[in-house]
Amino acid sequence: MTRAAGGGRAHVFYAMKANGNLGVLKTLAALGAGADTVSEGEVRKALAAGFPPERIVFSGVGKAESELRFAVEAGIYQVNIETESELDLLSRVAAALGKRQEAVFRVNPDIGAGGHAKITTGSSENKFGVSFEEVGRLYARAANLPGVRMMGLALHIGSQIRETESFEAAYAKMAALVGDLRSEGHRVERLDLGGGLGIPYDIPREFDHGPGLIDAYADMVARVTQGLEVELGFEPGRLIVGNAGILMTRVLHLNPRPSKQFLVVDAAMNDLVRPAMYEAYHEIWPVAEPRAGTPEVAYDVVGPICESGDTFTTGRVLPALKPGDLIAFMTAGAYGASMASTYNQRLLVPEVLVKGADYAVTRPRQSFEELLGTDRAPPWLA
Prior knowledge:
Shape: globular
Number of strands: 17
Strand content: 15-25%
Structural class: alpha/beta
CATH architecture of the largest domain: Alpha-Beta Barrel
Order of helices and strands: EHEHEHEHEEHEHEHEHEEHEEEEEEH
CATH class of the largest domain: Alpha Beta
CATH topology of the largest domain: TIM Barrel
Number of helices: 10
Number of domains: 2
Radius of gyration: 23 Å
Strand order of the largest sheet: 1-2-3-4-5-7-8-9
Helix content: 25-40%
């Protein structure tokens, strides 16, 4: 990121939504990263993990008044404003607190990209950001509002992007916008370029985020932003944690059909929803090295949930497996545990952080008492 900034100032704000494990957060905070948050809960967890408020940005298209109040009171670095009504709300909240909150406008450049339609965020058909055509008017409005100090612009065009052309088109458009705003007398000191640079899901054995792609991205950013004299912000998430995590599961049953073989495992779509939601691919490795000569079988790998959509993969060729065998879903460090649920009243799985030969359980397996503990029956049924 420093290379991308061309010697200028650059900030890395880790996208907490990718993986909010407290151990992961503390590790990144200790390394000097900031946090990109999208809810009050994430702001609170970032603070608890040791991120100083001056390294926290608050993004998201639907910030509630109470959330903005908490963020302003905490003294966070930046609010990424996404609607005109949010601008007005932030102004009122901050002014009532006697503060002036630094903020940027998240701009929708109408250039969307991503590994799936559901994670494309930069098109005008997507809900995110203010319209490109409205930025000048809103920036001028903001200059006359109490409680807000506009510092620049932000964008995020999508996730799991494995090329640089879409980024370059969007960033070039933003660079021109910076010049236009300055020509109108506005202060533009920051440009938050978001995240979205993708990782390989199909070749994790190399543990390679694709240095060629990263180098090309850095060179492109340096070229497009040359001479802008802005502080650059980056919001990587998946890029940092995706290939750092696995989901380990045990084979429960084999269920043969005339045309296929089902491999039923104890993990399910509530633990790793990406295959069901995005048709996402994850490498699957047997935990134990198969013996020489072990035959291979094409499996449909499925979980216990009562939906046919609870399918991790179809026709995947693996070494022959049996009940009790352990397998690992690779590249599960991003959008795995952070998107997990208790659907079918299934317990949340434990999380384990590993450092060299050491490991620690950073989230114990949920108990049934904890699962039931927040439920309350209405008085007429007590």
